[in-house]
Amino acid sequence: MKALEKIIGVFRKFPGVGPKQAERFAxxxxxxxxxxxxxxxxxxxxxxxxxKHCPECxxxxxxxxCPVCADSGRDRSIICAVERPQDLAAIEKAKSFSGVYHVLxxxxxxxxxxxxxxxxxxxLVDRVRAADGAVKEVIIATxxxxxxxxxxxxxIRLLKPYVGRIxxxxxxxxxxGDIDYMDEVTLGYALKGRxxx
Length: 197
Known about the structure:
By secondary structure, the chain is an alpha/beta fold. The protein is built from eight helices and six strands. A four-stranded parallel β-sheet has the order 4-3-5-6. Strands 1-2 form a two-stranded antiparallel ribbon. α1 (2-12) packs across α2.
């Protein structure tokens, strides 16, 4: 059944979808009524045509600015740079940040062939420079892996002439975690990033 194998292959390309889950999705499509399938197809078409990048921060948006950039109550003097829109959503769920964001859409990765000009680094630098001193802090919230660190180092070098304060999100021991279960690298970062209380 080539058609079934084809749709399973499509679902397998979705992030986090394994072979069994892809098969379940495909079988759902086979069993679904025509109106359900039409709704799915229409939703896919609609999302492709109406969801674009926010012209300010490059988050996803419908019809102009994203909800964060459109919110006049946000502190525009602090920009948090993240790798992906999902990272922005995770920070927003924490309800601890009232500034604005810049979505890089990736990380510098020499090993994977991702060069600085392939992600939204220049756009962030241009945005900070155009603010003419109004941006007081850029928080670099890239992932704590080799690519995230490379991106953070690159960003620091690019932004230093234009902003007075550049910070990196802290990482280390998770709340409720046991120290004896932490790996050496995590503990090392936790000790380096310690704060005065």
